Amino acid sequence: MSSSAPPRNETLIVFALSLAAMVVSMMQTLVVPILGLIQNDLETSSANVSWVTTATLLSAAVFTPLLGRFGDQHGKKKTLVAVLVVMVAGSVLAAVTHSLLWLIVGRVLQGAATAIFPLALSVLREEIRPAKLPGAMAMVSGTLAFGSGLALVATGLLTSGDNPDYRSAFWLATGLAALSPGGRRRPSSPPPARPPAAAPTSWARSPWPPPSSCSCCPSPRGTSGAGARAAPSAASPVPS
Questions:
Q1: Which of 10, 11, 149, 235 is most buried, by the most CB atoms less than 10 A from its CB?
Q2: Confidence grade of residue 230 (pLDDT, cut at 50, 70, 90)
Q3: Contact by Cβ (8 Å): 56, 24
Q4: What's the Cα-to-Cα distance from 24 to each of 7, 18, 30, 111, 160, rounded to whole Å?
Q5: Dihedral in degrees, nearest 10, Cα atoms 129, 133, 139, 140
């Protein structure tokens, strides 16, 4: 007897991918409350510090379709793990640097992690049964809005006080990304069985066009009905 595959914990998979999607959405709004702190700490202009948010949006627009296509060709789970590692690296770089240029580079790496969302939806299609798939996709999609709001509140609380430090927000992002269960490898399992396709109806199996019994319509084989049998042959002599 062939050994059966180990059962999948679908609840854990949905929770892990939801947390990963939430961390990705937090990266977009993480710096909004601390732009003024970044400007004062790095002694730069407001036009230059605005690239901290613009770089993330541009990176997401460029890398999301590219990494999605890469995941289709080389494996969605491996690509999702690699993108999580890139997001952790960008968060660490943004937390330790004292240069605006390297801070923007770190934000570019964080923006590339936006590709986690479409990759997570693709993984759900492979790992979740069709009966539970709509609810699982709704759960992962709903964490996007929740993460955006959570980042605003958490960043505001971390940077409150007499001596606020904007780097604490990036350390928070680093910790959440590193502890995200979505980055852990799981044993591969066969995809859930899909329901069989419906059998074609009787009219779909019948030949088209149907054979005609009318004398004025040609039959499928190029001959006509009763009128064709009564018509004289083209090779017969014409009576004088």
A1: 10
A2: very low
A3: no
A4: 29, 10, 10, 8, 23
A5: 90
